[in-house]
Amino acid sequence: MSVRTRLAPSPTGDPHLGSAYAALFNRAFAHQNGGEFILRIEDTDQTRNRAESESAIFDVLRWLGLDWDEGPDIGGECGPYRQSERLAIYKEHMEQLLASGGAFRCFCTKERLDEMRRQQIQAGKTSKYDGKCLTVDPAEAEERAARGEPHVIRLRVPEEGECRFVDGVRGDVTIPWSQVDMQVLIKSDGFPTYHFASTVDDHLMGITHIFRGEEWINSFPKHQLIYQNFGWDMPKHYHLPLLRNPDQSKMSKRKNATSINYYRRCGFLRESLLNYLATMGWSMPEEREKFSMDEFYADFTPNRLSPRGPVFDIEKLSWLNGLYIRELSSEELKARVFDWAFGGERLDRLVSLVRERSERFDDLFPKVDYILGDRVDLTEQDFEHKKLELSDSKKVLEFVNRALGEVEQWNRDSLYESLNQLAGLMNVKFKDFLFPVFVAISGRSVTLPLFDSLELLERDIVTIRIRSAIEALGGISNKERKRLDKEWRTLVD
Ligand code: GLU
Questions:
Q1: Is 42 touching ligand 1 by the criterion CB < 6 Å?
Q2: N- to C-terminal Cα distance for the chain?
Q3: What backbone phi and psi angles, to 5 degrees, belong to 72?
Q4: Which of 14, 216, 219, 224 to mutate to test the pocket of ligand 1 (most atoms within 8 A of CB)?
Q5: Strands annotated E in 94-167
Q6: Using CA atoms, how far apart are residues 116 and 358, in angstroms rounded to an integer?
Q7: Is 49 in the pocket of ligand 1 (CB under 6 A)?
Q8: d(Cα 423, Cα 434) in Å, to the nearest integer?
Q9: Is 25 in the pocket of ligand 1 (CB under 6 A)?
Q10: Residue 325, CB half-sphere, CA atoms under 13 Å: how many?
């Protein structure tokens, strides 16, 4: 049987470092064994999917050289590779699972579930579904469903005993069934959840090995039940340790740059990023730190994966990147720098922005330095303004970041619309409102047109710069965040 692995990202945000990390191991293992690496888009969460996210995934994986053998854009024998195009397949499989008793319809209302959860938490118990609808007679449940009564479909989970399995990284794992929730497999909108769609697809796509983040290890028992109910063989699982910050805390989108694009836009080379990711949770013989992808593909063996949480340290990555930069030939370096700074339409855009504002060539470069360069160092003084207190500026920046997080199409016009609307809601004059944003992204109060700048800088750099500006203004305490959360809800609801 041929080895088949997969990456199954959800197109809900900016492609995450964790996706590149998982792709790297899945692809290496498949190709090393003469097998296939598949890209499947898990887009069943209709509320969180973002239109531009899928193409961003294709784009960054290609930039990294992590291309796939089958996928939504290139097809393959097990397509379609986008879950939203496979709904009929899930429906058919769910009918089988219901008929075999592996799943049941649950008609509990949101109010009942909220009350159940409240009582469980109050009693200090793990919050999970209490199994009320297990007692509904299956024939009656079918009738109620046929009448259109709103409901979900849940997984039947044993009440006693333990789920035991062998994880390729951690070895023996035991999870008591009492800790496993009767997971919703089909939501009330008829869409499957990750657990059901992913399991059915892994089987139908012939996946033999899965390298995925440790955050999924507690889902394994649920997935195992689904496999067992269908009588399918389960792929071998390897749960990769989560990336950590130098202080050992988990890397999270809220605090760190976790998007691949951020590293690309800061000018890291794909070689160093891949090399560095390959040292996260895996090690070369003799712990060698610098190696090429050819060497990695030749030497990779899952035996040397370790469950210890690896530290992703941008300083270390920068050091490694420097080594790679110095190894490039001058020709190659020139080509790479040019492509990074001016590739695609960037050169045309920059030229058209600066020519109107320049009299001599030496005016040109200082005008674009904040777009091409990273690291804008800011202090509170930079935010002094006659109408806005520092705390107002901080609030504006925090809300700007929230609003920008919702913008689907990252272009000048949608950015303008979003911020203009926010300024209106916050009742701050647009010109004053934009002042801290100018400072945050450029370190100055006047720049090239702001919305063109935001578009050119791209989402990740903008988000991180605004976040650093908030830090320069003293950061946001937990108490302040709670207050801001409340204020934000009243603004946007
Ligand atoms: N769609 C899941 C994610 O985005 C896939 C997890 C898995 O690899 O099973 O993380």
A1: yes
A2: 54
A3: -60, -35
A4: 216
A5: 103-106, 152-155, 162-167
A6: 66
A7: no
A8: 9
A9: no
A10: 12
Task: Tell me the C-alpha distance between 163 and 86, whole Å.
Answer: 30
The one-digit pLDDT tens for each residue of the chain (493 residues) are: 799 999 999 998 889 999 999 999 999 999 999 999 999 999 998 777 776 889 999 999 999 999 999 999 999 999 999 999 999 999 999 999 999 999 999 999 999 999 999 999 999 998 999 999 999 999 999 999 999 999 999 999 999 999 999 999 999 999 999 999 999 999 999 999 999 999 999 999 999 999 999 999 999 999 999 999 999 999 999 999 999 998 888 887 777 788 999 999 999 999 999 999 999 999 998 889 999 999 999 999 999 999 999 999 999 999 999 999 999 999 999 999 999 999 989 999 999 999 989 999 998 888 999 999 876 789 999 999 999 999 999 999 999 999 999 998 899 999 999 999 999 999 999 999 999 999 999 988 878 999 999 999 999 899 999 999 999 999 999 999 999 999 999 998 8
Question: Taking a C-beta distance cutoff of 8 angstroms, is the pair 228, 27 a contact?
Answer: no
Which residues are CB-contacts of 329 (< 8 A; sequence separation ≥ 6)? none
CA of 117 to the centre of ligand 1 (A): 26
Tell me which residue has its CA closest to atom 3 in ligand 1.
9
Strands 162-167 and 152-155, sheet pairing: unpaired
- Between CA 217 and CA 180 the distance in angstroms is 12
β-pairing verdict for 162-167 and 171-176: antiparallel
- Cβ neighbours, 10 Å, residue 461: 21
Angle between helices 51-63 and 17-32 (to 10 degrees): 50
Crossing angle (nearest 10°) for helices 450-472 and 430-442: 80
| Beta strand pairing call for 209-213 and 236-240 | parallel
Which of 227, 183, 225, 229 lies closest to 204, judged by CA? 227
Hey, whose CA ends up nearest to atom 6 of ligand 1?
Answer: 8
